[in-house]
Design a protein that fits this description.
elongated
Length: about 140
């Protein structure tokens, strides 16, 4: 029996899109606030515009990695290693990964994966809190 793919567009057509989408978009916006403000301040201060460019770029890469891994999972093919997904998140792609998790319903139930993912999000938040409000007191590279 052939497997039927349940694409995001098919789920939306049937009303099965991302559950609580408004609340999740709001949470994403709140989580992106500190990194966005921090990256803007870095650029405006003349230090570097790289973080402002890196977050969207690596987020897109993360989203594509999740999409590929989800398709590979559906096809019982060789999977993208979790350490690759986590590396992309750590490099700044966690917003794209969060969107991909909800959009593709991928990696949302695996507790060990989610613990590492949210740990990475927390690290990003702490780094930007330190930079914005504590004068980069704990960051040796800033």
């Amino acid at each position: 029996m052939a497997r039927v793919r349940n694409t995001a567009s098919q789920r939306v057509k049937r009303g099965e899109g991302v559950q609580n989408a408004r609340l999740k978009w709001l949470a994403l916006a709140v989580l992106c606030l500190l990194p966005g403000l921090g990256a803007l301040q870095l650029g405006w201060s003349g230090q570097s515009w790289v973080p402002l460019a890196l977050y969207p770029l690596v987020s897109l890469i993360s989203l594509l990695l999740y999409w590929q891994d989800k398709r590979q999972a559906q096809d019982n093919a060789w999977r993208t290693p979790e350490k690759v997904l986590h590396a992309s998140e750590l490099l700044g792609g966690w917003p794209g990964a969060l969107v991909a998790q909800q959009l593709f319903r991928h990696k949302t139930r695996k507790l060990s994966y989610q613990l590492v993912f949210w740990g990475i999000v927390l690290v990003h938040q702490v780094v930007w809190i330190d930079y914005l409000f504590l004068g980069a007191r704990f960051l040796p590279f800033a």
